[in-house]
Amino acid sequence: MKNNNENVFDWKRIVLLIGLLASFVILILEGVDKVHTVHLRGIFDIVFLVLWAVLELDAVFRLMKVSKEEGFEQYRKFNVMELIYLVISPIALVCTLVNPSWAWMRWVVLFKMQSVLRKYNDEKVFQVIAKSVALILIAFFIVPVFNVLSVAISAPGQIINVMPKNIDWFSMKYALADKQFLRSFASSLFIVVVGTSIFIAITSTAAYPLSKPDLPGRKWFMLFYMITMYFTGGMATEIVLADALNLMNTIWALILPNVISVYYMFLMKNFYEGIPVELEEAAKIDGASPVYVFTNIILPLAKPIIATTASFVVVNLWNNYMSSVMYITSNKTIYPVQMYIRNFLAMDPMDIALDNPKLLSYWDNIEMAYLFLAILPIICAYPILFKFMKGGATAGAVKG
Amino acid sequence: LNKVKSTRNLKFKKYAPLYLFFIPSALFVLIFKYLPMAGLIMAFKENPNMLAASSPIQAILEAEWVGLENFREMFSDPEIIQALKNTLIISVQKIVLVFPIPIALAILINELRGCIVKKSLEFTMYIPHFLSWVTVGGIFGAILSENTGLVNNILEFFGHERIAFVSNKDTIRGVLVTSHAWKNIGYSSIVYMSAILALDTNQFEAAKIDGATKWQQIRYITLPGIMPTIAVMFVMRVGSLMEAGFEQIYVMYSAYTKETIDILGTFTYRLIRDSGLRPQYALSTAVGLFNGVIALVLVLSSNYLSKKFLKSGLW
After folding, report:
1. Cβ-defined contact of B186 to A367 (cutoff 8 Å)
2. Whole-model pTM?
3. Is the per-residue pLDDT at A6 higher than 70?
4. How many Å apart are CA B110 and CA B219, to the nearest integer?
5. What average pLDDT does chain A have?
6. Gap between the Cα atoms of A335 and B81, Å rounded
7. How many residue contacts between A and B have a Cβ separation below 8 Å?
8. Which distant-in-sequence residues (6+ apart) come within 8 Å of A335 by Cβ?
9. Tell me: the pLDDT tens digits for B297-307?
10. CB atoms < 10 A from the CB of A17, how many?
11. Which residues on chain B are in Cβ contact (under 8 Å) with A398?
């Protein structure tokens, strides 16, 4: 609530904001930094005391002013935080002066934030805060991934934080020369292509009859599929099944158990339901068979949802390593990329470095080179995935 | 009645060819989802001797019935009790610490004006969701590494000691929660973003005219507006309490951290694959069944509650 009064005392709100920010900086430095500002501790304490005095005085003045004009009830109603600050902060401060290990109590200054920021109720200030938070988040999401690339293409034995230093392609070359690793890409590719094809074939068909609201027994079919979303036999039974079907240590064990996705089937069903019935009826009057209607009318119209779900199935199959963990015990030549990476990261460098000591110094970089190459396909496909995601693939859960 | 019957017959005739469309997927579901459920009888039998019998199925059928013996063994094993505890602790930590973040993230993105920062945040925040747990585990292993990791470099810069986050049983749960957050908060915020977009913009305009601050708008319009979504998501999240994240833990798991992050999932796996002895199929099935039944009860009851009190549920 902006009024002229506050504009007149503009300098006051600026002082308060700077005081608050300075208190935060001091608190953060005191809490986090143990090297660069240790010798400033005494000064920090004094500055903090002064800032506290300013903030506390402001709180007292406000209390007096508001309760005189509008009554204490009114003050309490809108300034709970400040009231807490007013009462607690002197106690907290005394405590921290008596016992320095209670310094965390000074964070009570957080309670003052609301009353200071209230004077900055304009879009600009809010945007500055929101944007800084957003930038921190962007760094949080992107820096770990970027770090992998940087380490992968840097010379060994340096501290790499974000940017690569002394570019050295040895690790990348080593990873790319690993025939087993390249074969794992072929394996993954096979799994993804075959698995996604089967997924599209069996899911897009089953969703069609489910999308007919008056299909006799539709409810039972829904239930039949839905149960599998919430209850499974568990790992032991699945392993025994793969054993019984002679799938153990074959690439089919990495495909067949993973191609059915009831969740995506229901997404498709929901999409089919949105296709106008008139289109089908017209074809049926012309004597078209259901198969013809499905392949020539429904499927072309359902391309968007098929593309969306298929792209997510591609990612799931590409990222799947549980199947390898469960079903592959001896035949390591069919390991997909994820499983190969997992085993590689778990390896002891000493075993490999015996005949090539150079590898030992490069080991961290080599690991990151492998990791980066495993991420690369996802990063390349990401713009497409992002588009599908924005398209709202998550909309409409399972409602039957 | 005859008429009803005849219309039903007519309907059936009309749709008869459509049932053929179910066959391929039904086969897959029967074989890969329902057959394993039949295998749950193992939980009530003694451990099948796979090597002696002609086939695994034969071995299961030949094994003696032991009633609830496997479950008795399960509850007398302190390791399993510890695994159950860990499952619940890790799950609860993930819910309490990570669940609110996507809500805040969605509100933040909704409030951001201007293109570049907003777009780049939206573009980057889904990336981790598409990475596999193997690679996420590798990335976190790298940036948390004791000797070269980014996080430890920062800690050292400020004069703290380097910490072996990943191989320390006290810090590993923090790593689990953090990497879980890193991978999922972007993706989970989508549902809240669409809920916010569905809100009535007139309300915000009116609030602005009345002089409401941004904070007040968020607190009194946005949050109450998306509260039904939040409640449903929360109920559903609680429904999946028994999934503490097997894939995640399996990649980060080591002998040092076994005590604090061995969950029921990893335990059932080890009973079959890492025991070094005869695989304990029966006990593993029993633990899995126990886990599955609790999970099912949780999902059903949370869905029931959500439908009853929030008028919306999973089905």
Report:
1. no
2. 0.88
3. no
4. 14
5. 86
6. 34
7. 289
8. A184, A187, A324, A328, A343
9. 998 998 888 88
10. 15
11. 314-315
